[in-house]
Amino acid sequence: MGVGPSQEEEVLADEGLFEEEELLALRACFRLLASVPESALPSSSFDGFPAVLPWPQLLNAMADAQFGLDKLTKWRGFVAVVARCCKTSRSERIRAFAQLYSTAGGETLDAMSVRELLVHSLTCARLGDAPTAEGATPLKWAAADALLGAECLTIDAWLTWANEQLPALGLVQAAFMLQFLCAIGRAAAAGRAAALQAARTDVVVCHAMRAVQEPLLHAASDAEHLLQPAAAWLLGLSIGPAVEAREWRCIYSSATHGLSMNRFVHHVANYGGPTLLLASTDEGEVFGAYVDTPLKPSDSFFGGRDCFLFHLAPTFHVFRTTNVSSNFCLFSPHTTGQLRGGHYMSEGADLLGFGGQKQRLRLGFEEDLNLLRWHNSCTSFEAHPNPEGRLKEGVRKVELLELYGCGGAEADMVQRELRERRAKDAAKAGKVDRAAMFGLGKGVLGDEGAQDKFILETAGVHTFYSSQLEPLPQEPPSTE
């Protein structure tokens, strides 16, 4: 049933989901996009919109019976679809957008649809800057894991994968869609004729958008790094929405600092925030771990429930913690610096690993970090739900190892201050306190050279009666 002009201002259930300013902006946007206020949105309404969302599919959804709407609903259909895509629960948002990309009557997603959905999401996070074909490679790895060789997957299967792997994904497109439509509405309400063009530069980078944007990566040097922006974005979505824009600093890179436990420990020391470890192997794989607590040497396992393991290539998959064991992270470098020999669990061995037990780590590093050992299951982290997604177990040679500090400017500042303090303490300790060495305090014997006088008198060279250097009295000549 159509809605007449007199009904346009009626209070809808969906309207209550929006803040007052958002609702006013959306009403102004609708009036601009509709040919006249009393009509539905024409098919040309979204012409010229940036290709960051499937606008034609959104337009069709606003008049689709699956939403319980009539083709002449106009404002009612517009606000209902915007509400469903932007204001519902995380799972519902992910489902709503997946249906816009789906094939076969909205029931399945093929490989191309999944990749397009992920590319559009990253483009939204970048406020319209689409990734290059090379830059989108990690997105292909993610799509490959979701499909695992199948031609397509159901919407429910996609929802399960996305909620587990990328829990913040549902916020990306939703935040951009709402902010872009509101920007159009604000420009139209302000009387700007080119409202669409104005909206392209007037999208408010709101709290929600900042939370899902790509982390700002600070490289260790000009050398090539393992972690690239698109991969960092995926990992950021896996961690979850950030309180503020993320800044990740490369604390350690084997390409710059050298591959050894000694160099690793030196650069990790005193960093007080969560960290992200990545390691590439000679077989073209990239493994990694996210540790939600500071990486400090310990003889026992540590870490919280937000830790996870992952492989980034050849497919992207995150392994969450289980409720069975809390053996999440082990960092126990050998204190003497002595290289171990024989088996990697031998006496005095350096230990860096995640999950499992000390004798069988799920992801462990051996031979002074030069070898990586991987197992597909443990009691601390989940296994891949599909056997086809499990990588070969065993040992690989480490090609490149990197550690990123994810604690932001505060954790960087703390590490810098502690390093400066250690340097000052070391410099101070390098100066020999001769007065303390001989049990003398400052000012003993009356002047700053007291320790020198004490040494001379002890050696029997001079006796000091004042601050002046005096010769010792001569013994009288013998009368014999």
Automatic annotation (TrEMBL):
Transmembrane stretches, start-end: none
InterPro entries in UniProt: TLDc_dom
PROSITE patterns reported for this sequence: TLDC
Domain TLDc per the UniProt entry, residue ranges: 225-407
PANTHER family xrefs: NUCLEOLAR PROTEIN 7/ESTROGEN RECEPTOR COACTIVATOR-RELATED (PTHR23354), RE10231P (PTHR23354:SF108)
Protein name (record): TLDc domain-containing protein
Lineage of the organism: Eukaryota, Haptista, Haptophyta, Prymnesiophyceae, Prymnesiales
